[in-house]
# Entry
Amino acid sequence: MSTNSLSLLSTEKDSAAKYMMLSSLIWLIVPSLLGLFLAIKLVWPDFLNQSPYLSFGPMRTVHTNGVLLGWLSMVQVGAMYYMLPRLLNTTLWSERLGNVTVWMWNIGMTIGAGTLFMGITSGVEYAELIWPLDLYIVVMVSLVILNAFMTVAQRQERQFYVSVWYFLGSMVWLPLVYLVGNVPVEMIHVPGVHQLNMNWFLGHNILGLWFTTMGVAMVYYLLPKVTGLPIYSHKLSLIGFWTIAIFYVWNGPHHLANGPIPPWLQKAGIVPSLLMIIPVWTVIANVFGTIKNQMNLIRDNVIVKYLITAGIFYLAACLQGPFQSFMSVSAVLKFTHWTVGHAHMAPFATFTFIGMAAMYYIIPRLTGQSLYSWSLANWTYWLGTLGFLVMGLSLWTAGVMQGFAWIDGKDFMAVVEAIRPYMLLRILGGAMMMASMVVFLWNMVMTVRTSQAKIPLEQSDQKVMVQS
Amino acid sequence: MERNTTKLIVLSLFFFAVGFVATVLLPFMDQGLMRPTPTAEYRKELILDQPDSPEARGRALYMQYGCQYCHSQWVRPVLADERLGPVLRAGDSYYDAPHLHGSARIGPDLLWVGDRIPDKGWHIQHLIDPQGVVEGSIMPSYNWLTEEELEALAAYMVSLKYIENPDDVVDPQYRY
# Structure
């Protein structure tokens, strides 16, 4: 790290990317720990229940908002600050402005977490922050967008690589999706069922038109860089981009399957959900096509292993999603723990993994030293992957049990009792995921510590990851 | 297009707008979604028109402590919901700002809990000591709420009841 790394608004090259990614770690660790606490509360309800601030509802909102608006959004924006200038053969338009957004993000998240802990909430799932904070976020995101588009404007490379498409699409869609979901209903009356619809327009599209598009952009950047292999098909990646742009935005109403909305609206949400298989297939085909002759890289290179695993879970999530959106399937699985398992798959096993892979690649390049330990990175991978599988499989099993038991007319408490073992397993899975993140944090902290002996950077990517 | 920022932005916005108009704006034209039911009118009188009523205060607490994350207020025309009372109509939550339909049933559905358990005392006791009232319950205790807050939440619970609606189809089509 250079000497002016302590200045509040650095103009040093890549400082915004570095600080955005490093400070996102706070929002990975703390809200995830709260998630683990929540899982414990579902078995032992009196755990940490001595004060209103630590009760289930407020803690859940800090967990979801923290990992989504904090960790995932920050690591993705940080990666964009690093990748976009390189793809366009220029520098970030304003490092200073980038660092302003780093501060705004961390301060905003701190205030947001504080208000949510105090129970100050809009009450809208995934849009709980109150409207003054929403305005703050709109201003902050506008600054990110300004920086991205000005960087595009001053580019030296005319041709847009596919990652640039995905980054710019995300920049266009995020503010719109956010505004629709956060209409302040206490001021502008929206009939309940329409607001429900808008709520899930946000709930779905923030994933599809923000986390997914940013994450895919990062994969398309990282995979060729790390492997030294060209992307299998440029055309395929563009088909993927436009099918996301055309179909994803329609998916909101499938969250209201069998709900108080007309059948035409349910079908308008369900049919495009099935078509989502096209964009996910293009990504998977491209990822596997790229490394098809060098599959050994999955074993030998931790970053490739992360990206491939993220791709597999992305495919799984996008097969599960259309399946669940069928009215007949939704009638069984909606409101059960199945949904909770599904809701963790893409944010954790896909986009958190991509975020971690990006940090393994970028942070050593920005600090000028190799990663502290690839062996620890491997531990992070296995704890995270196996932990998620334990949690996901126990939630999915519990969800199927709940769904069919309710149809059979079983007593509600008997079902709660029956799924208790799975809730215990879920805690175990969650604890492994948490351990994975702590190891990741340790690895990152040790990498940026200046006392580390410097190892030439070139070794850090290609370094073969095998047990000695 | 692979070099043109404007084209990329305009097309991205266009496809977004098509989906937005179809799935968010068009439903506003659907009269069936814009007609409040007697249940909605009843809740409007109790809560929206009297922001200081115990029911309104109770609803605010329900939101504040995130009850909706474990309790749905959403009965569907499906077999799993057959024993939960009348199916939710679009107009039932017409005046709700925000909606509290929820997305999970870690605890039971509360759409018509006022019909099922009209006794305020039960609700207060249950909030203070869930396991004492329902054996094996995984609901946390809310014994740190003040007496007035407990009263308000109980009043809100009891207000969640079905008001006869002449427009309702008597026998909804249960599917799946």
About this structure: Chain B touches chain A through 80 residues (CB under 8 Å). The radius of gyration of chain B is 20 Å. Chain B has seven helices and no strands.
